[in-house]
Amino acid sequence: MTRSLAYRSGKGVPSVGIISLGCPKNLVDSEVMLGLLAQAGYHITPRADDAQVVIVNTCSFIGPARDEAAVALGQASRLRLSGNCHVLVAAGCWPQQQPEIVRDLFPSVDAMVGAGEFHRIVPIVEQALARCDAEPLQIIGQPTYLYSHTTPRLRATPPWYAYLKLAEGCNHRCSFCAIPAIRGRFRSRSIRSVVAEARQLVGTGVRELILVAQDTTSYGIDRYRQRMLPSLLRKLSRIKDLRWIRVLYAHPTHLTDELVEVMATEEKVCSYFDLPFQHADADLLRCMHRAGCGDAYLRLIERIRMRLPEVTLRTSLLVGFPGETRAKFRRLLAFLRVAEFDRVGVFAYSREKGTAAAQLPNQVPAQVAQDRRDQLMSEQQGISRGRNRRWVGRTMEVVIEGSDRRGRWLGRSHRDAPEIDGLVYVGAPAKGTPPPRGRFINVRITRTLPYDLISETTDTTALV
């Protein structure tokens, strides 16, 4: 995911453009850097080719993410050499993980900022501007920083929704993942800080809060010695004018009956779980350093659906992990068919240097992994369409976010996280009627696509 973040302020000062790559957690970091720079008086421009300072906030989770970062840094390097750009900053996960590689590939980079140094972006930019063409700065340390409700932040999302980061880092040691080495140990914000920021966001017009962390279900375990997500959700649900609360990145082995009960009883909490199961074969899961097996996961899914019959379940699956035989892959395929997830993301294994899995025998050829990914996605397409058909003829609430070339309004329901899930296409009441962006309206579902729903309006009166 690539974004150019925009906010305008000040005159006669250096202009700054930020290109944000990767997940919503990265986006929050970019918004914090924007807020700090704007507070310091910098002019923030939405166009990197107009900026005197270009910051590329990178992702380094897997190889394709680094490829995307390399493209963005390559384009920014050309601006640094022949354009308006005087300072180029590489920030985030890639310089944190592989600073030497970033420096060697992009010698025009003036500063590298690690994943725990975003709060220092203003003095880093000032120092880089003062010493253009000198040796590049390298500000990379052990990540310990955690932003709070007092930290300035300029949001890049539409006015009606915002991401709210609960914690930073990760204590899990999944053998395929480098995130703990990049982001540091899991560290939660206080409930007071999270609720205070939520109130601030709602006060600016936000109606949907999307809670993110590397593992949201572990929220509070370090600070309060117990998992506090259910308690936090109850407190957030009391905020007036807040419409939806969505939880992303919930670890399946930490999902409790209490959390399911909160989702069932708190109207504002979307009946939506994002549970990255990764695989169904017990042997592979052990090699991944993850607990559970396909049968245990199916029992968990059954327990969730018994209490939440209308729940939307999203998962992530990993194919091509070392030692994944045809039989183990068939076990995963059978799991997918029985589980009937609403949404699935499938990733081909990426051999990450420094991870335990990189040293395992029986590495699976990349093409085999890609073929297996394609097979799972093809299978899931039919499952997703079948899950969507359950909504035909029914009424649901959607938030309108824009329109397409055919004049249809584009909406999202409680089943749809921004940019990763489907859409609800809404027939406008009259041709050329502008979409009521950010409004919550009721629609009736008339037909389905594999991942999207088609609907007609039943009530165009705003609910917020």
- Mean pLDDT across the residues is 94
**Which structural class matches the secondary elements?**
alpha/beta
Q: What fraction of residues sit in β-strands?
A: 15-25%
CATH class of the largest domain: Alpha Beta
**Counted beta strands:** 20
- Assembly state (oligomeric): single chain
- How large is the radius of gyration? 23 Å
Helix percentage: 25-40%
Shape by Cα distribution: globular
Task: Count up the helices.
Answer: 13
**CATH fold-level assignment of the largest domain:** pyruvate-formate lyase- activating enzyme
- Give me the CATH superfamily of the largest domain: tm_1862 like domain
CATH architecture of the largest domain: Alpha-Beta Horseshoe
Distance between the termini: 29 Å
What's the main sheet like? Answer: 7 strands, mixed
Structure characterization notes:
The structure is a single chain. The protein is an alpha/beta fold. It has 3 domains: 2-139, 3-Layer(aba) Sandwich (Rossmann fold); 161-389, tm_1862 like domain (pyruvate-formate lyase- activating enzyme, Alpha-Beta Horseshoe), CATH 3.80.30.20; 395-459, OB fold (Dihydrolipoamide Acetyltransferase, E2P), CATH 2.40.50. The chain has helices at 24-39, 63-82, 93-97, 99-105, 121-130, 179-183, 191-203, 229-237, 257-265, 282-287, 294-307, 326-339, 366-389; strands at 2-5, 15-21, 43-44, 53-58, 87-92, 111-113, 137-139, 161-165, 167-168, 187-188, 208-212, 244-247, 272-274, 312-319, 343-348, 395-403, 409-412, 424-427, 440-448, 453-459. The strands form 5 sheets. Strands 1, 2, 3, 4, 5, 6 and 7 form a 7-stranded mixed beta sheet that branches. The chain has a 5-stranded mixed beta barrel with strand order 16-17-18-20-19. β19 (440-448) and β20 form a beta hairpin. α11 (294-307) runs parallel beside α12 (326-339). Mean pLDDT is 94; it is low at 4-11.
